[in-house]
Specification:
single chain; mainly alpha; rod-shaped
Length: 101
């Protein structure tokens, strides 16, 4: 009878150990999932920040390029005006002569 009690106690102890091990394994898995999720969120934040910074740099560079192109276009217009300014009186005279016929 004593042996049966010891066997039953050993089975109960073994069952408790199994349940504790399952609980610990489940807790460890949950912690691992939480840790992985946290790392993924941190990585996503880093990616978002990197993209935002890249977009801002691109905007700054584009704005700089736009300003540079505007300045160059204005310079070319000024040069063109200056280059044709001397020809205008002769062209007007030629048109007038043609109209007078």
């Amino acid at each position: 009878m004593e042996l049966i009690k010891k066997i039953k106690q050993a089975e109960a102890d073994a069952q408790d150990l199994v349940e504790k091990a399952r609980a610990e394994a489940a807790e460890a898995a949950d912690k691992a999932r939480q840790h992985r999720r946290q790392r993924q969120e941190e990585a996503e934040l880093k990616r978002t920040k990197a993209v935002d910074e890249a977009v801002q740099r691109a905007r700054t560079e584009a704005q700089s390029d736009v300003e540079s192109l505007k300045a160059r276009a204005e310079q070319q217009r000024t040069q063109l005006r200056e280059s044709v300014q001397g020809r205008i009186p002769a062209a007007v005279a030629k048109v007038m002569d043609h109209l007078k016929g």
